[in-house]
Amino acid sequence: MTSKPIFLIIFLALLTRLLQAQTEPIILSLPEALELGNTNNLTLQQQIDRVNQAVSQLSAQKTSYFPKLTAGGFFNYVSSIPELNLPLGPTGSDPAEVKIYDVNISLQQPLFTGLRTHHLIQSAREEVKTSESQLQNLHQQIAYQICNLYYLAQLTQLQQQVLESSLKRSLNNLKLSKNLLKAGQARSIDTLNVSNQAFKIKTQLNKNGHDYDLILIQLEHVVNKSPIDGIQPYEEQDIQLVLENLQIYLNMALENRPELNQVQHQIQGQQYRKKSIQSGYYPQLYAQASFHYLYPDVQILKQQWTDLYFIGINLQWEPWNWGRRKHEVHQISYTINQLNTEHEKQIQAIRNEVKQAYKNLQSDRDQVLLTRRLLKQENDRYKIIQNQYIQGLATTIDLNDAEIALTAADLQLQQAQINWLQDQAFLAYVTGKINTHYQP
Q1: d(C-alpha 385, C-alpha 402), whole Å
Q2: Most buried residue, 18, 143, 182, 204, by most Cβ within 10 Å?
Q3: pLDDT class for 9, splitting at 50, 70, 90?
Q4: Are strands 284-297 and 98-112 parallel, antiparallel or unpaired?
């Protein structure tokens, strides 16, 4: 009797914890977002299927090394056969119909195909490597996309904090202006100017909130998970304004970019395909064996089920086909030339991307350092103007100008810091170093 209340309490506690877990907001960190994208993204799942498809194709090509076993049967009916004139016995026979029943099993083993099977298997293996390089490239593209959206969301959070601080200052100035108006030390227009500034900030805050929601919707789409209630706030102390030598990043990109490996595997695959076509210039040699179980319904033969077998060598050779094979080889050669040109274009594009990312980071670093100094100066200026306004030595226009300049400097600093993080993620992408464990 006493065990029932205990079980009921345990059940209620578990149910409460489950409901809390379901209603708890989802606040993602950057590593969590990257891991979700790596696991749930639909484009990645499609490419994984393509890799598995290429692996299956490779396995299918490997079966060409083994004997081919076929089973079959046939029935032949001939309406009549011509009169037979035999040297012995009767001088002839009347025409008669012919029926033949046959059940057979055949075994064929390739002996020499000009290495055609070997080249086709190698080509299929290169297809697997090409698909794997495409998958790696997609992983990096999606990781960069997630980083970019994540930093945009953090930027809106920072902008919201700056605007909230600005609104707090404007409301404080509005209260001060109203007190001065009551004391006859300010005009109504002064109070209205301060009030308008506060209203503008509220409008910006409203738009900022909608922008944040839109970015989260885009992030939900990339990581294929909904809903996402928010992300972890940006921490300024995490930023490291450090850059290595440009040549280091250029070498890193040429070593790690999966697109370059992808084209190389495509070239190798086409070269093996070319060799497989050229193998047709050689004779094709097969060993064959077949077993037949047949019933000849013919008057001159013994009408009963009979078994027999054939063993032999089959030689196939096509020495002339109007140049078809030659043109197929030329077609593959042109494809290889195109891929080689594509490889050179990719190297140039990658080097250009690295240089752009590096230059952007240099600019971002300078902007962060300069706007930090600007923000400090604007903050000091605002305090001076505010004290002068209280003493009646400055107007509301001066106060509003100081407030707008301070807010703009703060927003500019947050933008510069996020630009650094975004360009840093882009540099990691163009050097092939961005992944699910990426940390700025």
Answers
A1: 7
A2: 143
A3: low
A4: antiparallel
**What would the pLDDT profile of 187-229 be if each residue is shown by its tens digit?**
788 788 888 888 998 999 999 999 999 999 999 999 999 888 8
What b/e readout covers 230-261, taking b as 16+ CB neighbours within 10 angstroms? Answer: ebeebeeeebeeeeeeeeebbebbbebbbbbb
User: Please, which residues bridge with residue 395 across strands?
Assistant: none
User: Between vectors from CA 149 to CA 144 and to CA 150, what angle results, nearest 5°?
Assistant: 95
Query: Nearest CA to 358 among 282, 203, 260, 252?
Result: 252
Provide the residue type at 186 as one letter: A
The amino acid that residue 81 corresponds to is: I
End-to-end CA distance of the chain: 60
Residues 219-270: tens digit of each pLDDT:
999 999 988 888 888 877 667 788 999 999 999 999 999 999 999 999 999 9
Q: How far is CA 184 from CA 181, 240, 392, 404, in A?
A: 5, 52, 11, 26
* Euclidean distance between CA atoms 170 and 399, whole angstroms: 9
Quote the pLDDT of residue 95.
54
Quick one: which of 263, 259, 278 has its CA closest to 337? 263
Confidence of residue 296 (pLDDT cuts 50, 70, 90): confident
What are the DSSP calls for 227-250, one per residue? ---EEPPP-GGG-------HHHHH
**Residue 185 pLDDT > 80, yes or no?**
no
Fold for domain 26-65+113-282+323-430? Outer membrane efflux proteins (OEP) (1.20.1600)
| DSSP helix/strand/coil, 363 | helix
Which single residue is written with the structure tokens 């140039």? 348
Residue 4 has pLDDT above 70, yes or no: no
**Tokens matching residue 4:** 């029932």
* φ/ψ of residue 316, rounded to 5: -125, 135
pTM attached to this predicted model? 0.82
